[in-house]
Amino acid sequence: MVSGIPVPRAPVAAPPILSAQGLGKAFGKFRALSGVTVDFPEGGITAIIGPNGAGKSTFFNLISGAVPPSEGRVLFRGRDITGLPPHRFARMGIAKSFQITNVFPHLTVRENVRVAAQARNVRVPLFRDRSAFPELTERAEALLGAVGLGHRLDRLARELAHGEQRALEIAVALAAEPSLLLLDEPTAGMSPEETRAMMDLVQRLAETCTLILVEHKMKLVMGLCRRLVVLHQGQLLAEGTPDDIRAHPEVRRVYLGKSA
Amino acid sequence: MSAQTTTPVGAAASPAASPAARPGAGRTGRWLALASRHRVALTLAFLVVFPWIAPYQALAANILVLGLYALGFNLLFGYTGLLSFGHAAFLGGGAYGSGIAIVHYGLHPVLALVAGTLLATLIAVAMGALAIRTRGIYFAMTTLALSMCVYYAFYQAESFTGGENGLRGINVPSLSLPGFRLDLLNPTVKYYAVLAVVGLAVWLFSRLLSSPFGAALEAIRENENRAQACGYDVRRMKLVAFVISGALCGLAGALQAIHLSIVPIETMHYSTSGQAVMMALLGGMGTFFGPFVGAATFSLLQDGLTTLTSHWQLFVGAIFIAFVLFLPLGIWGEVLARLRRAGW
Ligand SMILES: Nc1ncnc2c1ncn2[C@@H]1O[C@H](COP(=O)(O)OP(=O)(O)O)[C@@H](O)[C@H]1O
Ligand SMILES: [Mg+2]
Question: What are the start and end residues of every segment in region (Disordered) (chain B) (predicted)?
Answer without folding.
Answer: 1-24
